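Protocol step 4 of 6.
Sequence for Two component, sigma54 specific, transcriptional regulator, Fis family (Nitrosospira multiformis) entered exactly as in the expression construct, tag removed. Do not edit the line below.
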Amino acid sequence: MSDAKPRILIVDDDTDLLELLTMRLTAAGYKVDAVPSAEAALNYLDVSRPQLVISDMQMSGMDGMALFEQIHRSLPTLPVIILTAHGTIPDAVTAVQRGVFGYLAKPFDSKTLLANISQALKFVPGAVSQKELSQAPWRKNIITQSAVMEDLLTRAGLVAEGDASVLIYGESGVGKELFAHAIHDASKRSDHPFVAINCAAIPEQLLESELFGHVKGAFTGAVRDHKGLFQLAEGGTLFLDEIGDMPVLLQVKLLRVLQERQVRPVGSAQSIPVDVRIISATHRDLKTEIAAGTFREDLYYRLDVVSLTIPVLAQRREDIPLLVNYFLSTFSEKYQKNINGFSPEAMETLVAASWPGNVRQLMNVVERCVALSTAPLISPVLVYDAMHREEEQLVSFEDARRSFERDYLVRVLKITGGNVTQAARLAKRNRTEFYKLLQRYQLDPSVFKQAQV
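Step 5 output, structure tokens:
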């Protein structure tokens, strides 16, 4: 437990009460910041994160409940206590049902308020300062000063204390695996393995063996027993990245493992008990996938006990300078270059960019700038060139799929010497469908026949 004083934000348009509360809470050992309106409170929360908010209900402009709704939407783990001179039991019940931690009617007893504050702070991990939170070893690889990200990290710290399954949502490149690893490092399982696998990167037949293992002779090429990732992660955490891309038949087997807490290697008649925490991640909307029949609803509820959604980089632009300087230090050391930083204009360009590839794309751009830099200060021209080349490489999903399909069709036609019947059979498509694919990409099978002559 840290000795740091918890920080409390007080919001009230009554300056006399604001001053009185500040004096009482400071005397009780808390750090106190005070603002005269809900709008000012939201501005405060844009740049700082207290451990508790105490707000008056009736204020000019936005009232206390509207402020709570705004806070709860973006910082759901931040407790809020509301003070009101017009309190009723139904109002209090409604407020608590909506998520308000405490609801006190004026005039209130100081001991009651302090008791409520003490109770609220029990739900804040350690009630430590922002600086201490940012220096916690388990989150050392997550670079941020974003209030939304800090709230996510608070939730990650809370969920790490138990064994609940966690489902992390986020676009490619936002850092889903970093969050999963942070939860593992903050948990009681941190001394045991953290094992990660990308479910979209491995063919279905191999994925089953990778997850559950196989015994010697289970299939052609199985020359020895092979431990699966569930066994390798024993006592620790198994991270299933891109779980939304897992084939449906394998989802059934995964569900059985989660229910029974034991795995059966491919080709084995014996099941093996496993003690593993599951953290999964996806860029897909799994509820949409469930409606489409491509993801099992029962598995979804097993995985999504607690969910975290990581914002895209464009929604946390205040983190870009921090990340840029972190990557700059890393790559300057890697390439053995003495680079002092980015010019103000270059940094402005980086902060204003759209970053469709998120943090991973930003890292690539910084590395390219460092690798190509011949001066101690990176210029806007070098940044622009690095970003332009990155955008050229980062094609859309549809473009990538079209490129893959065309290359695949060309390879199959080469293998079969332009024989459409054989090519369709090899691709496991009927002849009519295969002809349509050839027409879509304007591929002439006769050209491949001539090439065989």
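Step 6, annotate. The longest helix spans residues 397-416.
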